[in-house]
Design brief:
The protein is about 65% helix and about 10% strand. The protein is mainly alpha-helical and about 160 residues long. A two-stranded antiparallel sheet has the order 1-2.
Length: about 160
């Protein structure tokens, strides 16, 4: 692929990802950023709760910012933070009933949208899309890991 076409294709992918991420939420959605949505989803998948360090590591929220994000979600009634019964020095974060309801609503919206896409494109095209998407994500993760190996600080 020539360099100009390559640049155009990369810009096209960037635009598509931006459009995908910012798909309109339902009118009753609370309006959380992507990091907050990832935290909500992670907590939905881990009903036993999670430590802030786990949330930061798994939800693309910086360890320095995680406290502010959790405080904002707690203020909105989406999650609660309690002392770990086994280690009072640690805090466990869990979704509230409101948080679970919000997570379920967003998951149902997502499923509904993709069911409609399946109907629009048909099973064969949709399977092709899923295969390509899986390969794309796998390769992006591989590239990220390679970059992180190169960026590790070295002792001089």
């Amino acid at each position: 692929m020539n360099p100009e076409k390559r640049k155009v294709e990369i810009e096209r992918v960037d635009a598509l990802i931006s459009r995908f991420i910012s798909c309109p939420a339902p009118k009753d959605a609370i309006g959380y950023g992507q990091g907050q949505k990832r935290i909500i989803r992670y907590l939905q998948e881990h009903p036993e709760g999670a430590y802030p360090s786990d949330l930061a590591a798994n939800c693309s929220v910086g360890s320095g910012r995680i406290g502010n994000v959790l405080k904002e979600l707690e203020r909105k009634g989406i999650l609660k933070r309690d002392k770990d019964p086994h280690d009072k020095r640690k805090t466990i974060t869990k979704l509230t009933k409101k948080g679970i309801a919000y997570s379920n609503m967003m998951r149902n919206l997502f499923i509904n949208r993709f069911e409609r896409l399946l109907d629009l494109y048909g099973e064969e095209k949709f399977d092709e899309y899923l295969s390509l998407s899986e390969k794309l994500i796998d390769n992006l993760e591989r590239i990220k890991m390679e970059e992180e190996k190169c960026l590790k600080p070295t002792k001089i």
